[in-house]
Amino acid sequence: MNGWPAGDWFPIGVFREEGRWLVDWCRLGSHRFVEPFFDETVERCLHHPFNLAFRRLTPLDELAENDPGALAPSGFIFHLSRCGSTLVSQSLAASTENLVVSEAAPIDQIVRARRFEAGVRERDQVRRLRAIVAAFGRMRSGPERNFVLKLDAWHALDLPLFERAFPGVPSIFMYRDPLEIMVSHARHFSLFMASLNAPSLLGISLAEAQLMPRAEYHARMLGKICEAVVAHDITPDALVAYDELPAAIEERILPRFGIELTPQAQLNLRNSLERNAKMPQLQFSSDVEEKQREVTTEMRSAFERYVGKPYAELEAIHKRRMRRSTMPAQRPMVLRAAASDRLILREPEAADAEALCDYYQRNAARFAPWDPPRSADVAEHHAWIAARQAQRHSGHPVAFLAFDPASSLLAGVVTLNGFGDLPPSAMIDYTLDANFEGKGYGTEAVSRIVSYAFDTLALELISAYYHPDNFRSGRLLERAGFRVVARPQIVPGLEHLMRPQIVAIRERPRGE
Amino acid sequence: MASEALAELQRRVSGDPAFAQRLRALEPERFVAEVMRESARLGLDVSEDDLRGSIARGRHAWVMRWIR
Predict the structure, then answer these.
(1) Minimal C-alpha gap between B44 and chain A (Å)
(2) Fewest CB within 10 angstroms: A10, A18, A60, A76, which?
(3) Chain A residue with the nearest C-alpha to that of B13
(4) Using the beta-carbon criterion (under 8 Å), do A52 and B59 form an inter-chain contact?
(5) What's the 3-state SS for A124-165?
(6) A291 phi/psi in degrees, rounded to 5
């Protein structure tokens, strides 16, 4: 008996009644946590009278600390509020392989219990926190592999508690210029600043908070959090500033959390980044200048007095990381096949070595007549990827792996090489997995790279060479707009050095 | 407070995923009437007041989360 209701019930609240801590459960059904905030997911569930009529209450202390079916947390997102953390959580939630729970009330109720109730022992708090997090980790509709929790802003004051409860689980702290955050809070009400218990974080009463100028109250809250993060001796790698978004999501946050996305998840993430996280109908754009314009003298004065110093200390820690990273990771370029959404072409990454090795091994017999054999040693594919990453043309990648988003299978490889200057030109090479042959995938992949070569690399001419017996290759090139320009003859006596081949070219369309 | 009959119905719902799914799939407008019918079928004397009271308490409990 682990104390959990069967199936798809999840905790929506934790409260104390008649001396006992109780968990209030609600049935989620097949719905996922896709709303920007936990409360919105619950609201959605509570639209149906079933979830109001059939709630369950169970004693919190009967919950087991873990469950074999629950995902362990991949990472925690702490933040200073209004600083892009919802953009991060929403971009992750866009993919079904990520379970993302954002600012869940039951977690908050456990974290804050000690602050409001004397006698709560830390070891009980640790146990309860593990249990409630495990309860969320069970909420899997099927494909979830990663589990990210975004906490409430004030939970940064409890970083040590989270570390004790989840040793080794990475966390990040997201922040931005507190003046811009103060502008945001002045514009829009937030539970963080306005809940009845919030003033206790500052050690003041609700009445005192109500008499305090708003800017001072906001600055003191932000200052308190910044102080706690600095005092916690946070590492530079854990700090993510607003102006690093959205690139930091793929370059820093996902690697820190050990999350590797499938090509489809990567695509979903990038698509979601184009939207405003809290209002998905709007496009995302940085609002630094706009917010700085709204900073008042009163805000600036409160900032200087209550948050300026700890913020400067945070920035100093963050700059240590910036200085250390001399070569920031490059975001891999991703192209979509123009004709459909069924192929994603992207630069190879080190993590693709195994897939690449497998690709060449399973197609070895098919490729043998036309291409030299490839090694079965993954290390050699690692080396090939590293070499392709280093070999760029005018700063742009020259090799692409084509993935089928539906199956995540490597469907093909397309590379450009032999670059010339007069005219700007290159040769194109391509291979296609047997599963994708004869269905137009090869034409789509080659056509996409040809467009890229003309549009991005500004080439004028692309050539391709193929064996006369390789009819499929000839037809593919023809469909991709190539025309045959030469059939070089084998020079008598040099048969052992020359292979029969056909040369096809495609020129940049006139007027482009 | 919930009646014994309603409490029993709630126990059955939370212990039987298929039953829960069937009730959750009901049109909200037909929910109370259908649950009354299901209760009668199970021999549980759940009153409409019990059920509507439970729905109201659920809503109240959720609203009270703001007081924290």
Answers:
(1) 15
(2) A18
(3) A54
(4) yes
(5) HHHHHHHHHHHHHHCCCCCCCCEEEEECCHHHHHHHHHHHHH
(6) -75, -40
pLDDT single digits (tens) A257-307: 988 888 888 888 887 776 655 555 455 567 888 888 899 999 999 999 999
Beta bridge partners of A378: none
The whole model's pTM is what? 0.65
Backbone angles phi, psi at A460, to 5 degrees: -105, -25
Say if CB A435 and CB A411 are below 8 A apart: yes
What is the C-alpha separation between A48 and A31, in angstroms, rounded?
Answer: 13
The CA distance from B42 to the nearest CA of chain A, in Å, is: 16
Where in the sequence is the domain holding B59, given as residue range(s)?
Answer: 4-67
8 Å CB contact between A125 and A155: no
Judged by CB atoms closer than 8 Å, whether chains meet at A49 and B10 is answered as no
Cβ count within 10 A of residue A484: 14
A281 burial via Cβ count (<10 Å: 0-12, 13-18, 19+): exposed
The count of domains in chain B is 1
- Helix (H/G/I), strand (E/B), else coil: A26: strand
From the CA of A9, how many Å to the nearest CA of chain B?
A: 9
- pLDDT tens readout for residues A379-411: 888 888 888 877 777 778 889 999 887 777 899
Burial class (CB in 10 A: 0-12, 13-18, 19+), A65: middle
Its ipTM equals 0.91
Q: Shortest CB distance from A6 goes to which of B17, B54, B58?
A: B17
Do the Cβ atoms of B23 and A55 come within 8 Å? no
- pLDDT value at position A322? 64
Q: How far is CA A380 from CA A346, A356, A376, in A?
A: 20, 10, 8
